[in-house]
Amino acid sequence: MSLNRRLRPNPPSQRSDSDDLGILNERILFLVFRSMKWDIQALCSTASVNHKLRAIVKRLLWRELCAHSAPRMIASLENAVPSGRIGGGWHTLAKLMFFCCGCEPTRNFKVSRPTPGHFVKSSRFSKTSGQSFLTKRCRGDLLYVSDPCEHQMGEKEDDLGIYRGVFKGFDKSKTRAYLIGRRVKLEERVRCPYCGAPEWSMTTAGLVPKSAARRLGSHHGALEYFVCVNGHMHGSCWLVPLSSDDNEDDEMDGSDDSDFDDNDGGVRRIGYDDRTATNGSMCSMGEEVVVDGPAK
């Protein structure tokens, strides 16, 4: 759907004083936020003013924010939904892109204390990383996964990694078909932190490959993640401490480790340099980049 078709000019007969100032003119709002580089906190503030602005932001501006931040990823996700309706809505996808959901203890993953969610300054979503979270029976699916957001938990505990992601065309995915075909039950006490929909535990479903731990820099069995009925994914893991020797090895190794086999060994911890790149560009591992979000 083109931008001109999404924009709805206000009929002259329905204009109020505030309309004359342009606050409810969709084209003006679009140009203002484009000049602000789609600042998400400003969008949130605008959506909270009244129901009219909230409707405009929900229908038009959240999508534009997502497309500006990760154009290739959004184009790929939209190709799977001809109607242009992303599962859960564009506002939930924007939240997933710029908000670390935190971590609560679950039956399969215990933490000493809950970790609150927060906005993130930058994120990188990778379909290469996403392949590491798919078992061999589901390898035809396309999943974008972020680098883990690292949280210090204490001197006697490893750092906690919190990550999130989204499936392309989840309704027709092999992962969903397997979950439904095996009659895996939805979690009773866990809901998607982005859209509020019911979720499956991939640990309970037996759909956590060893390659996921290696991609995150964790140990197999030291992580858990969930997928909701709208295809949003989020999870937590314990990160293996990274020694200086590991850093040197990573700098010398420029190979692409996207093709994991479940029997391969080794752990890869994602370093700081992996997380930065130019907005909308592709890094050496073919990952989409999202940068310049709000500060923590």
Automatic annotation (TrEMBL):
Give start-end positions of Acidic residues composition bias: 248-264
Tell me the superkingdom of the source.
Eukaryota
- Region (Disordered) residue spans: 248-273
Name one cellular component (GO) term. Answer: nucleus
InterPro entries tied to this protein: EID1-like (IPR040267), F-box-like_dom_sf (IPR036047)
Question: What biological processes does GO assign it?
Answer: abscisic acid-activated signaling pathway
What's this protein's name?
EID1-like F-box protein 3
